[in-house]
Amino acid sequence: MRVRDPVVAGQFYESDANRCRQAMSELLTDACRADFSSQKLFGGLVPHAGWSYSGSVAAAVFATLAESFAPDVIVMFGGVHRSSIDVAAMFGDGKWETPIGPVPVDGRLAERILGQTNLIVDDVFAHEQEHSLEVQMPFVASLFPYARVVPIMVMPGSKAEAVGDAVGRALQAYQYKAMIVGTTDLTHYGPNYGYIPEGVGGEGNRWARLVNDRRFIDLVQNMHSDRVVAEAQTHKNACSSGAVAATLAAVKRIGATSASVLAHTSSAEVFVASGGREPSDSVGYVGMVFV
């Protein structure tokens, strides 16, 4: 069996099982849930920074989704930060280990997705150092203990939307009780990111969150899977726009028509709220669900 071991446990989130459960319990207890009892949810969009910064936003999404329904499978679209890949990379069989237990991969669905398109390959090695999906897995293990996953990394490019559509077709064709979760962080602003169009410090950080992030969020809310990659490439307001394009295309294919924002913040806002001084750098985080 192929096993994906954690590589950022102890950095982005707790590596000890008890401390991981405790940290996640605190995040979920404080999560800003929304009531969608009269609506069907098809999935969500979560950030992927360290839990101390973006965990509350991710928790809001996962808690809301868990209260909606219990899926048999969760297809997860992640970013590409460290690997060099030309096509989308799937972890097609085996399991992902987390500090609180393993998350099994749905190998049968993976095969069926691969049968829909040549834009995805089964490449477990591409996932070895990628953190964007790993930081979500403890939430999955805890809140969806009976679900399997299909993790897919998606490069930002012209084919990202087609990747998601192929996944949606497979879910439709085989009538899976599925949920789709994508992940991205938003504007990476400040000297360390080489992006300071509105100056360094508070004013620049606020512009990044209230203006630049908002451009990208508005496109997602309006379900523009065909525009998010170009938007991010032009305005530097999402690090994993390929994953977002795929997520939007997939949820639209299985019935979603809109997206709702549950939470939107930034690392600077979180740091200042905790008593710190305004930092020179900031990263945006948004949590959304698809209806």
Describe this protein with a few key phrases.
single chain; 291 residues; alpha/beta; Protocatechuate 4,5-dioxygenase, Chain B; nine-stranded mixed β-sheet; three-stranded mixed β-sheet; 9 helices; globular
Q: Rg from C-alpha positions?
A: 18 Å
> In the CATH classification, which architecture applies?
3-Layer(aba) Sandwich
Fold-level CATH name: Protocatechuate 4,5-dioxygenase, Chain B
One letter per element, helices H and strands E, the order comes to EHEHEEEEHEHEHEEHHHEHE
Supply the CATH superfamily name: LigB-like
Specify the structural class: alpha/beta
**First and last CA, distance:** 36 Å
CATH class designation: Alpha Beta
Unreliable stretches: none
What is the makeup of the main sheet? 9 strands, mixed
Estimate the mean pLDDT confidence. 97
What's the shape?
globular
Give the total of domains: 1
- In DSSP terms (H or I, runs of 4 or more residues), the helix count works out at 9
What this model shows, in words?
- This protein has 291 residues and is of the alpha/beta class.
- It has a single domain, classed as Protocatechuate 4,5-dioxygenase, Chain B.
- The chain is 37% helix and 18% strand.
- It contains 9 helices and 12 strands.
- The protein has helices spanning 17-29, 51-68, 107-114, 137-143, 160-173, 202-221, 228-235, 241-253, 267-273; strands at 3-4, 43-46, 73-78, 88-90, 95-96, 103-104, 120-122, 148-153, 178-183, 188-189, 259-266, 282-290.
- Strands 2, 3, 4, 7, 8, 9, 10, 11 and 12 form a 9-stranded mixed sheet that branches. Strands 1-5-6 form a 3-stranded mixed sheet.
- β5 (95-96) and β6 (103-104) form a beta hairpin.
- α6 (202-221) runs antiparallel to α7 (228-235).
- The longest helix has 20 residues, at 202-221.
- The protein is globular and about 50 Å long.
- The N and C termini lie far apart (36 Å).
